[in-house]
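INTERNAL AUDIT FORM
Audit reference: QA-55
Scope: verify that the stored structure record matches its stored sequence.
Auditor: D.O.
Record contents follow.
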Amino acid sequence: MVIFRFADYGPILVTRNLGARVRESLLLTLSGTDKVVLDFDGVEMVGNSFADECLGKLLMTMSLDELRQHTTFHALSGLSKVSVSAALRRRYNSLVGTSDPKAYPA
C-alpha cells in the first residue's frame, strides 16, 4: 500500500492546471501498486475544478469499480469531500450518458 499525499501539492488545491499535474503523478503511482491511500491530511480546501481535473478525470482511464478497488480516501472532510463527491458523480454520469443523480452508485 502506498500513501499519496495531496498536501505535498499545497494546502489549497483549486486549479485545473494543478489538478492535471497531480492526476498525472497519481496515475503513475496507481500503475505501480495495488492500493493507494489518497491522503488529504493537511489540505484545507479542494475546489471543484481541481477535484474534477484530478479525480473526476480518473474515470476516463479506469472504471468506478477499479477506482474504488485501488484507492481509499483519508482525511477528506467538509466542503472538500463535497467537491470530490460531486466531481466523481458528474464525471461518472457524463461517461454513462445520464443526468440522473441516482445513477451514480453510492
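Auditor finding: record pair retrieved intact. Residues 14 and 40 are 14 Å apart (CA to CA).
Action required: none
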